Amino acid sequence: METMKRTVTCGELRADRAGQTVVLNGWIHRKRDHGGITFINLRDRYGVTQVVVDTKTPAAAHTVAPDLDAVVAELRSEYCIAVEGVVRLRPEEMANPSMPTGAIEALASKIVILNKSEPLPFQIDETINAGEDLRLTYRYLDMRSERMQRRIKLRSDVTFAAREFMINQGFYEIETPTFIKPTPEGARDYLVPSRLYAGKFYALPQSPQLYKQMLMAGGFDKYFQIARCYRDEDSRGDRQPEFTQIDIEMSFVSRDDILSITEWLMGHVFMKTLGIALPERFKRLTWEEAQEKYGSDKPDLRFGMELRDFAPYVEAAGFQAFKDALAEGGGVKALVVRGGADYSRKRIEELEAHAKIYKAKGMAWMKVASGATGGAALEGGVAKFFTANAGDVIKGLDVAPGDLILIVADAKRKIANTALGAVRVKLGKDLRLADPRAFEFVWVVDFPLFEFNEEANHWEAAHHLFSQPQEQYHDILESDPGAVLGDLYDLVLNGYELASGSIRVHKPELQKRIFSIAGIPPEEAERKFGFLTNAFKYGAPPHGGIASGLDRLVMLMAGETSIKEVIAFPKNSFAASPMDDCPCEIEQKQLDELHVVVRTP
Predict the structure, then answer these.
(1) Which CATH number applies to 2-115?
(2) Domain 303-430 adopts which CATH fold?
(3) Cα 420 from Cα 67, distance rounded (Å)
């Protein structure tokens, strides 16, 4: 085999190598027999080279192995082989300009089968048509496809570019523990039983949050980590039980410092990996602006279609449901669909059903038609209630004949915004309004620090318990938690939350106040977070940070909609791995060693 060790890769050969004898190793992508001459597309992760086997009319001075015919007859798709041959130029009419190696081919003199392949469960270049579980069961085959090879390479390139940038900016890469103390961070912990300490457990980190804060207390003012995180929650397209984030924490900084370093990081990553120049500064929206304009704290800015306040047109109209929503302190919001007047009643009802998923009680509508004397008029739906002020509606919403107006009202303004915002997103996808090649970043800032949990009847941290309230709200923390804005910020890309962070609490007294508002008694706070608050007592510096989802970033850069497409070995939609049958049952002997008793439901 030593003489058949590869000397070049399958993506390396060009016309300037003509006449050289080379050895290629790879997999048979395709094999075609043309009446005594066999063509093989040989593939590795670097590319594809066409191999020609011609035992009938070998070129002068080109000898072939005596068993070459028999070996070639045995070859099948995905056999792993070694080929020795001479590089030659393809005839001009046979060159393939779409292949980097399309100007040459290798005339084989010897082929060795390194390993055979059983019949495939799916064709390597058609893995996208295979079901999810089938692809994940044979993930090692799925990863041989050009699509997966390209995406995993992009992930590697993005990770390297991020690490390169952070190191060049003077950050230390520091690993934090994988086995940690369980702490409430919004999702369920994955727990690891201890063999040495019966009845006690480690948790896998949902994030390195507390440890990176203690690194700041330890004097390491610029930290980053390509951090593995674990959350026991339901899977979805852009979420997995285990995921990776680019984790950053800095001392003696303001919010703008964190935002700037993240903008520079993204700019470096996109230019280095995709050759795309991003704006030096990203757009900014307050949380309230994002809710009012887009009905979401992660708005997709690749298309317009902003929500409009319909309240100014309610009083003069006769539609009581709208008046009731406003009387209860709620909101009435409108969405204009340009050219949507031809929508059928069925299609409008489908959009209404989508709004109801987000707790809307219904969705009103009106179409804009040409008026009898020119201009525009309202018709259909609830138009009859707006006869008296139709002109004001038409002018205020800037609509024209052919447009459709969708309206959601609710006693809770957030529901009106969120439901109509969801309709906006659906229409954006249905109408293909967003440019798939565009990358629109936006910062969402000034989030509420607390949100009220009606089921539990107490306040909770909107993000996490360690975020700094903005200074002007310190005096009203206890008296009016709902009015308090945090020094919080999210980075949104194309409608996905890409990164989230905050300036942190660094004084123990303020941290205790936040615990108290969130309903955590002092003894519980000490038990769960005492190791962090104790660190605050010894001159912990002001600090803040951010974590960017690496999986989600690569997914968006690759133009995909699921992070499973950019993770080598993801779990399926049920948080399981069909390839290695994980999770699985454990032998009783090991359970006994861990002092664990299993109760089946």
Answers:
(1) 2.40.50.140
(2) Gyrase A; domain 2 (3.30.1360)
(3) 71
Quote the CA–CA distance of 470 and 486 in Å, as a whole number.
Answer: 5
Name the nearest CA neighbour of 132 among 244, 242, 236.
236
Q: Which two tokens stand for residue 430?
A: 């249905």
How confident is the chain (601 residues) per 10-residue block, as mean pLDDT?
85 96 97 90 97 77 82 96 96 92 96 96 87 94 95 98 98 97 82 94 94 96 97 78 97 98 98 98 98 97 97 92 96 97 96 97 96 83 93 95 97 97 97 95 97 87 91 95 96 97 96 92 90 93 98 96 94 92 94 92 80
Q: Which segments within 35-171 are labelled E, that is strand? A: 37-44, 47-54, 80-89, 104-115
The tokens 């209860």 sit on which residue?
328
- What does each C-alpha distance from 355 to 339, 348, 364, 405 come to in angstroms? 20, 11, 11, 14
At residue 195, the pLDDT reads: 94
Give the pLDDT confidence score for residue 397 in this predicted structure. Answer: 97
Of 12, 51, 13, the C-alpha closest to 30 is 51
Q: What is the DSSP string of 54-81?
A: ESSSPPTT----TTHHHHHHH--TT-EE
For 177-193, b/e burial (b = at least 16 CB within 10 A) is: eeebbbbbbebebbeee
Domain 135-284+541-601 has CATH 3.30.930.10: yes
For residue 213, CA distances in Å to 42, 495, 533 come to 51, 29, 10
**pLDDT score at 1:** 54
Structure confidence at residue 236 (pLDDT): 67
Q: Which residues contact 31 (CB under 8 A, 6 or more apart)?
A: 38, 39, 40, 41, 75, 76, 77
3-state secondary structure of 356: helix
Give the span between the Cα atoms of 155 and 244, in whole angstroms: 11
| Among 595, 597, 598, 599, CA closest to 194 | 595
Are the beta carbons of 173 and 166 closer than 8 angstroms? yes
Cβ atoms of 355 and 423 closer than 8 Å: yes
Structure tokens at 137: 């069961």
Single-letter residue type at 265: L
Edge to edge, the sheet with strand 331-337 lists 308-309, 331-337, 404-410, 364-370, 376-379
Q: Is 543 exposed, middle or buried (0-12, 13-18, 19+ CB in 10 A)?
A: buried
In this structure, what token pair is assigned to residue 467? Answer: 């975020």
> H/E element holding 493?
strand 488-493
**The pLDDT value given to residue 237:** 60
Locate tokens 């099948």: which residue?
76
Rounded-to-10 torsion of CA 468, 469, 474, 476? -140
pLDDT for 166? 98
As beta bridge partners, residue 547 has: 247, 500
Cis previous bond, 241, omega within 30: no
Q: Where are the domains of the chain?
A: 2-115, 135-284+541-601, 303-430
Q: Beta partners for 226?
A: 246
Distance CA 301, CA 70 (A): 61
Cβ atoms 26, 10 nearer than 8 A: yes
Both structure tokens of 441: 């970043």
